[in-house]
């Protein structure tokens, strides 16, 4: 005695399972709009005591670039 297995039935069953899984994942994420997912990086323990850069943070970059430029000019002259 044997069992006749139809390949089309297996593919249909697999397709049905995959589509059901995708449907459940989509319904779970319905409340999330593109790009509005929280990344929770601000809540992590690593950045707990960090402070955000103020609006004058770009001054540090300018000062560092000026220091590098002056070192290069001293070395080349």
Chain-wise SSE layout:
Elements: H1 7-28, H2 58-76
Which stretches of 5+ consecutive residues score pLDDT under 50? Answer: none
Order of helices and strands: HH
Number of helices: 2
DSSP E strands, number:
0
How confident overall, as mean pLDDT? 76
Distance between the termini: 95 Å
Globally, the shape reads elongated
* Fraction of residues in helix: 40-55%
Give the percentage of residues in beta strands: under 5%
Instruction: Please describe the biggest sheet, giving its number of strands, its sense, and whether it closes into a barrel.
Output: none
**Structural class computed from helices and strand pairing:** mainly alpha
Indicate the radius of gyration in whole angstroms.
29 Å
Give a quick precis of the structure.
Helices cover 53% and strands 0% of the residues. It is elongated, with a radius of gyration of 29 Å.
3D structure, described in words:
By secondary structure, the chain is an all-alpha fold. Helix content is 53%, strand content 0%.
